TrEMBL record:
<dbReference type="InterPro" id="IPR019575">
    <property type="entry name" value="Nuop51_4Fe4S-bd"/>
</dbReference>
<dbReference type="InterPro" id="IPR001949">
    <property type="entry name" value="NADH-UbQ_OxRdtase_51kDa_CS"/>
</dbReference>
<dbReference type="GO" id="GO:0008137">
    <property type="term" value="F:NADH dehydrogenase (ubiquinone) activity"/>
</dbReference>
<dbReference type="GO" id="GO:0051539">
    <property type="term" value="F:4 iron, 4 sulfur cluster binding"/>
</dbReference>
<feature type="transmembrane region" description="Helical">
    <location>
        <begin position="918"/>
        <end position="936"/>
    </location>
</feature>
<dbReference type="InterPro" id="IPR037207">
    <property type="entry name" value="Nuop51_4Fe4S-bd_sf"/>
</dbReference>
<keyword id="KW-0288">FMN</keyword>
<keyword id="KW-1133">Transmembrane helix</keyword>
<dbReference type="InterPro" id="IPR054765">
    <property type="entry name" value="SLBB_dom"/>
</dbReference>
<comment type="function">
    <text>Core subunit of the mitochondrial membrane respiratory chain NADH dehydrogenase (Complex I) that is believed to belong to the minimal assembly required for catalysis. Complex I functions in the transfer of electrons from NADH to the respiratory chain. The immediate electron acceptor for the enzyme is believed to be ubiquinone.</text>
</comment>
<feature type="region of interest" description="Disordered">
    <location>
        <begin position="58"/>
        <end position="90"/>
    </location>
</feature>
<dbReference type="InterPro" id="IPR050837">
    <property type="entry name" value="ComplexI_51kDa_subunit"/>
</dbReference>
<dbReference type="InterPro" id="IPR008733">
    <property type="entry name" value="PEX11"/>
</dbReference>
<dbReference type="Pfam" id="PF05648">
    <property type="entry name" value="PEX11"/>
</dbReference>
<dbReference type="GO" id="GO:0046872">
    <property type="term" value="F:metal ion binding"/>
</dbReference>
<dbReference type="Pfam" id="PF22461">
    <property type="entry name" value="SLBB_2"/>
</dbReference>
<keyword id="KW-0520">NAD</keyword>
Length: 947
């Protein structure tokens, strides 16, 4: 290549390239004639000294003469020379002193300490980060996008990967893995012989709290991402790119799609992209908003239409990725900077930041700062300079700073003492026992409640856990519960160490990194803010007493004061020797709720059986037994552990929601009514549990009072259901006017024209329920027996009430028949059993009997297709079975409730002769079954409200 003389940034720069030397030697002569910057080996400099002097004589007259070559003892080390690149502003270039150039006896070290930060505008990759220009193709080209992209593509994948490796680019999604090395995994041996497609998957599912850098790229610089997909795809020889964008990013997806459409229209992507002969397509896929889909294998699962749960590795995505084909998942920022690196050179990008932390980076600063923003800065910039320069400083000044989360919510928190001299790069934050993550800096001043903030993050990670790994599924729930107590100060100091040990047990024992994500913030809190936790606990103990400050609630402290009950033992709250008990920190409260409550009942049974207990202790013991019995009943009825039922606050919160719900209130009154009916039917229960006395006896007034309470509860329930008949009529009319649809089996109708049998039964049931409610509402005033107030008269009201019982019986009977028909149809059409390879007889591969090679190949291909079909059908069958089991459980519970309720109107009409206590038991059980749905609905509403 011929010699070149170039003028750049006000200084003369000569570059000589010779054979066998790819980099050449560069001499930079600044405005000061005594300043020389030399780079290359000594042998090459000596070999070209004569030619170089001749070239300098031919330079313009304004060029000062070159000084002699520096002696070895004054020459800089190679790493220093790399830092002295003239690619930045002149002030950044560090020169040798004149003393060193002249070779005096006294050699002075003129190299100052390297500082980072202060990125110049001409070195910023994302020029439109603040939306100064439109996000269209014309504006993108003015800012340098799509410049010489064809030349980059034609240079080949090896050249692109080598440039990315030379740049030192590490993944910007949080892990920090070297990007050039990761992209090279796709080009394995004999990759060109593989006929399967190859994919680049761009992770735009930016769900990390505090992170917004990728969103800004897609909103303001979408063409950088589209061009980056093309360059990165060429590096790994991909056939297409899928950009998986978060579902909430509606506007960003629209802007990005417009950019893709513009690129297709201009021929920049698609068939013969940029005229290079390389075919490459770009697609957008909208996600559902799950945080766990930010993990690469979860993202691939979601992209394939499956639940977003991580895969086990190996195989890695580079071998078996999207749709079973080689794939690479990369972050938006990582992909977007690739074209600029290829245009300006990997050495230019590597000139920023420290070693192993090169390049520029987008930082998202939020929280208690004067000007929250997203800014591009040099890697290794000091944290304080980043906040003071670009965000106007911390609110109230730097001394008002309390803590900073440096890299998104999943990185450990850092106190102010660490933040004073903290550099923002991967290695520096790792040395501070934190991480750069996504570079989402969350600033908290001294007005912030650090413990509450970390507790809120624990709730977030518990909510976003996919539940696949047991340590993450159970550990996230336990940490959320413990942090919610620590936030209030409820706990003992020893529990802090137990929480630390719990996070250590979760860390590294999950498929994806979400286990570390919820463990690390808690570890950082304990590491730096343990005195704050201890002070909270001490203050709470002073205000509320030691009994309420521990890890056990008030029930344990009350029991511990009873005579004969010792203090806490090994794992048992009641001090029983040899009992393993229920430790809420070592066993999940949801998973072992029934076992734990049964454990409490077992110990209290011993309290009740002992004749030496005092009257007051027995009374509280019986109430406590009833409390735990109700927990077990609700757990069995709901099919899962109730919402936060293992804590007293959770019980009160969900019970309040259940009681304030109009349907839940009616079910609650019906439950109490059934209990009173059972007690009046069996007086011995009153003497034993409700009103303990010695000897056991029941006064007549007690039973009379309970009967009166039962009657008033019945009237109260009728008042609540005053206008429910309107809803029943509306439901029946909706079913009647609805378009006729085939039954669940897919067959035709069997009970009427255009509608299946179960639909007509539901219409009859809804209509009868409506008429039953209408008659109940009409007789409410007369049955209340208010003196001087009558509507129909007591006799007529009693007769109509009997007719209402008949309507209720018919409605229940029709509802039970409908549930039974639906259940039979559901069970009669199970998924087809699969044997052998997984396909049925009709789908079995049929050979043609030919013995030639083509026939064998065709037969093997057919077998492979059938196996793939069988695998697909097995997965569909699993999903179908889950849906069938859920529907079956709901229908069985509804059928049982209707059959139990049939006893009540049948006995009232005299059709069935049963004991009144049996009616009370049937009412009790049906109330539990029907109230379970309301209970679960209230739990879901509470969880949504908490979120």
């Amino acid at each position: 290549m011929p010699d070149r003389v170039r003028h750049r940034a006000g200084r003369l720069q000569l570059e000589l390239r010779g054979p066998g030397n790819k980099t050449g030697v560069k001499w930079g002569v600044g405005r000061n004639p005594g300043v020389v910057i030399a780079r290359n080996s000594d042998a090459y400099i000596a070999g070209q000294r004569t030619n170089l002097a001749a070239k300098c004589r031919k330079a313009p007259s304004t060029t000062p003469p070159l000084p002699p070559i520096l002696p070895p003892h004054t020459r800089r080390a190679p790493d220093t020379d790399a830092m002295l690149s003239t690619r930045a502003a002149p002030s950044k270039a560090v020169s040798l002193s004149r003393t060193a150039v002249r070779g005096l006896a006294t050699v002075q070290d003129g190299t100052p300490k390297r500082t980072y930060g202060g990125l110049k505008d001409q070195d910023r990759i994302f020029q439109n980060l603040y939306g100064r220009y439109p996000a269209d193709l014309a504006s993108a080209k003015k800012m340098g996008d799509w410049h010489k992209t064809k030349e980059i593509i034609l240079k080949g994948h090896d050249w692109i990967i080598n440039e990315v490796k030379a740049s030192g680019l590490r993944g910007r999604g949080g892990a920090g893995f070297p990007s050039g090395l990761k992209w090279s995994f796709m080009n394995f041996k004999d990759w060109d012989k593989d006929t399967k497609p190859r994919y680049l998957v761009v992770n735009a599912d930016e769900g990390e709290p505090g992170t917004c850098k990728d969103r800004e790229i897609m909103r303001k610089d979408p063409h950088k991402l589209v061009e980056g997909c093309l360059v990165a795809g060429r590096a790994m020889n991909a056939t297409a790119a899928y950009i998986y964008i978060r579902g909430e990013f509606v506007y960003e997806a629209q802007v990005l799609q417009n950019a893709i459409n513009e690129a297709y229209k201009e021929g920049l992507i698609g068939k013969n992209a940029c005229g290079s002969g390389y075919d490459f397509d770009v697609f957008i896929h909208r996600g559902g908003g799950a945080y766990v889909c930010g993990e690469e294998t979860s993202l691939i699962e979601s992209l394939e239409g499956k639940p977003g749960k991580p895969r086990l590795k190996p195989p890695f995505p580079a071998a078996v990725g999207l749709f079973g084909c080689p794939s690479t998942v990369a972050n938006v920022e990582t992909v977007a900077v690739a074209p600029t690196i290829c245009r300006r050179g990997g050495s230019w990008f590597a000139g920023f930041g420290r070693e192993r932390n090169q390049g520029t980076k987008l930082y998202c600063i939020s929280g208690h700062v004067n000007n929250p923003c997203t800014v591009e800065e040099e890697m290794s910039i000091p944290l304080r300079e980043l906040i003071d320069k670009h965000c106007g400083g911390v609110r109230g000044g730097w001394d008002n700073l309390q803590a900073i989360i440096p890299g998104g919510s999943s990185t450990p928190i850092l106190p102010k003492s660490v933040c004073d001299d903290q550099l923002m790069d991967f290695d520096a934050l790792k040395d501070s026992q934190s991480g750069l993550g996504t570079a989402a800096v969350i600033v908290m001043d001294k007005s912030a409640d650090v413990v509450r903030a970390i507790a809120r993050l624990s709730h977030f990670y518990r909510h976003e856990s996919c539940g696949q790994c047991t340590p993450c599924r159970e550990g996230s729930k336990w940490t959320e519960q413990i942090m919610s107590r620590f936030e209030k100060g409820q706990g003992r100091e020893r529990e802090i160490d137990m929480l630390q040990e719990l996070t250590k047990q979760v860390e590294g024992h999950t498929i994806c990194a979400l286990g570390e994500a919820f463990a690390w913030p808690i570890q950082g809190l304990i590491r730096h803010f343990r005195p704050e936790l201890e002070a909270r606990m001490q203050n709470f103990a002073k205000e509320n007493g030691e009994a309420l400050a521990g890890d056990k609630d008030i029930r344990t402290s009350v029991v511990a004061r009873w005579p004969g009950v010792a203090g806490p033992g090994h794992g048992c709250d009641f001090g029983e020797p040899g009992c393993v008990g229920d430790n809420s920190l070592t066993r999940g409260p949801t998973l072992h709720l029934i076992t734990a409550e049964s454990h409490h009942l077992l110990h209290f049974a011993r309290v009740l059986a002992s004749p030496s207990r005092r009257f007051l202790g027995i009374h509280y013991a019986r109430l406590y037994c009833g409390y735990h019995f109700l927990i077990i009943v609700f757990t069995l009825g709901c099919g899962e552990a109730p919402y936060r039922l293992s804590t007293m606050a959770g019980i009160v919160e969900q019970f309040t929601a259940f009681g304030t719900d109009i349907v839940g209130l009616e079910r609650l009154l019906r439950f109490i009514q059934s209990v009173f009916l059972i007690l009046t039917s069996y007086p011995s229960l009153i003497a034993t549990y409700l009103l303990p006395s010695r000897p056991a006896s029941v006064h007549a007034s007690t039973a009379t009072s309970l009967l009166e309470l039962q009657s008033r509860l019945n009237l109260t329930r009728r008042a609540i259901r005053l206008f429910w008949f309107l809803g029943s009529f509306q439901a029946g009319w909706t079913l009647y006017v609805a378009d006729s649809a085939p039954s669940s089996s897919g067959g035709g109708s069997s009970g009427g024209v255009g509608k299946p049998l179960e639909t007509w039964l539901d219409i009859i049931a809804a209509s009868c329920f409506g008429m039953f409610g209408l008659v109940e509402s009409a007789t409410l005033v007369d049955l209340a027996r208010v003196p001087g107030v009558a509507l129909l008269g007591l006799g007529e009201a009693t007769r109509l009430d009997a007719q209402a019982q008949t309507l209720w019986f018919v409605a229940l009977y029709a509802s039970a028949l409908s549930s039974g028909v639906k259940l039979l149809r559901l069970l009669a059409h199970k998924p087809v059993p699969q044997t052998g390879e997984g396909f049925g007889v009709a789908d079995a591969p049929s050979g043609d009997g030919s013995g030639d090679a083509n026939g064998e190949k065709k037969g093997s291909a057919t077998m492979a297709e059938q196996r793939a079909l069988a695998k697909k059908r097995k997965e569909e069958r699993k999903e179908w079975m889950k849906e069938v089991n859920a529907k079956t459980g709901a229908l069985v519970m509804k059928l049982l409730a209707d059959m139990l309720d049939l006893v009540i109107p049948a006995s009232s009409l005299g059709w069935v002769k049963v004991h009144v206590g049996v009616i009370g038991i049937a009412m009790f059980c049906s109330t539990i079954l029907t109230g379970a749905a309301v209970w679960n609905r209230c739990a879901k509403q509470l969880l949504q409200k908490k979120a």
